[in-house]
Structure formats: C-alpha cells, structure tokens
Amino acid sequence: MNLKPDSKVLIQGIAQPLGSYYAARMRDYGTNIVAGVSVRKEEYQLPEIPVFDLVEQACQYTGPVDTTIIFVEPYRALDAALEAIDAGIPQIVIFTRGIPPLDVVRLLRKAEATNTLIVGPSSSGIIVPGKILLGAQESEFYTPGSVGLITHAGILTYEVALALSQAGLGQSIGVNLGNEAIVGSSFRQWLEILAKDKSTEAIVLVDQSGGSSEETTAEFIAQVIDKPVITYFAGNYTPGSKQFGNASSIIAAQLSGPVTKATTVQQKVAAFKQAKVPVAQSPSEIPKLVKKALKKK
Q: What is the three-class DSSP state of 170?
C-alpha cells in the first residue's frame, strides 16, 4: 500500500449526510479528494469537488484513482464496490455498516480475483498522521511516528492512539478493519503490509471478542514478522459465558464452513502468549510494552 498526500481519493455517496461531512473533514486534513459519486447530486453541498453519476465517469475526468471511500446505503454498497473494482480502483474503504453478509462474501470473492484491497465494512478508515485521512478516523488522537496501529475495535481505537501519542510514540498509520462478522482485509494481511513498510518500527493490534483466526495470526507473527508486535484484547475480564456472538456471526460461520464457536478473549490471549507475542492487560500498558520491545531491537 502506497498512501501519499497526493494520492487520488474518490468519495462514493458524497451527497449522503455522513459522506458530505467526512469529505469536508478529509479535505481539510489535506486529503486529495479529486471527485465524488452520487445519484442525488442536487443535495451535494461541497461545490469545489466535482460530482458524477458513475465511478467510470469520475475516473475518466480525474485519471486513475488510488482509493475510494464508500458511504452509500447498505443495500447499495455491493454495487458501489463492484463499480469501483470494475473502474480499476485498487483500494476500497467501506464505511457503511449492516451490509448483508452474502453481499460481502460476493464482494470479497471479486476482490480476491482482482487483487483489490478491501477495508471494512463498518470501518472508520485509515489515517497516516500528518499526511492523509481516508474515512472517519478522529485525527486529533494521532501524531506522526513509527508505530503501526491496526484494530477491529471502535472508540477503543482512539484511546489506544491517544495513549501512544501521550507516551511520545507517534503512529506511522492507523487502520480500522471494521467490526462486522465478515470484513475484507485481515490482521495477517496488514501485518504483511507493515512488515515491509520502512516507516513502521513496531505494530500494535487491538481486537475484541468474536472471530476464530487468532491462533493462526499468533503463529504467523511468531514465525514471519521480524518487527515488534504488541496486542491488546478488549473484554479480557468478561466471563466467557457472557461473550455472545450475533446473528451475523452465525451466518458468517455458516458461509465459511462448519459452524464453530467464536473464540473467547481469554482463548485469544492464551494463543498469543503461547506464541510469545506480548499481550497488554489494559490500553495504558500498551506504550510500556512498545517501548520495551523497541529497546530489544
């Protein structure tokens, strides 16, 4: 992934209230928003950004687009993402939540076939502090630095970013993968990206209950990643019997194979400790573990 201040960014659903609001915030942060797409152009309130009916029309006007951010309604999200893929956009951030699981499965199959990077659904996006904002990340919690932050959490993301910033540990990137039952890119995919990123010296993973791939992620870190990785799992003190999944999680499990019980936070912690990957007990402990790991490099 190559995110630069001059990267060309498209907003799909720019006339939606949230699309318009966050487009203005991204533009004010310095993001190079080259165009928007909307079926309701008459409701659009940012005349300095050209708006088109179709992604193809926008790309013909702007030239190749690096990233698109989708703010459309859940029932239109699949079509919007497929339209972006057909236009050759290599990176898609999906802010929309509540997309039907079957739609997400169809999208991810198409993305895999076209080597398209999907972040989301229900993602607050990506931020490279001081350079570019893609989505709804709250930029005031971030400072430029060398710690990569990858999360499946919501508001907790900002608590961790703030703790790192206050400890003098700026971030090279902040990525929110979304917290739906089925999402696009994974911890493992972003670990591979940040392992090659020269501006990232350490990586922090923040997760919560649900999912069942953490054992393989822990093994992958131990065997492949040569940069320090620190993890934190929200809900470590919640009894396993209280860590319920939702209907989408059940559907996701059925779509991916035999139904299995979602991994509890305690099981995730045990998997990472077994792989000798440091696990913080609270967000405030993360900066201490990062500094300790960097000293060992």
A: coil
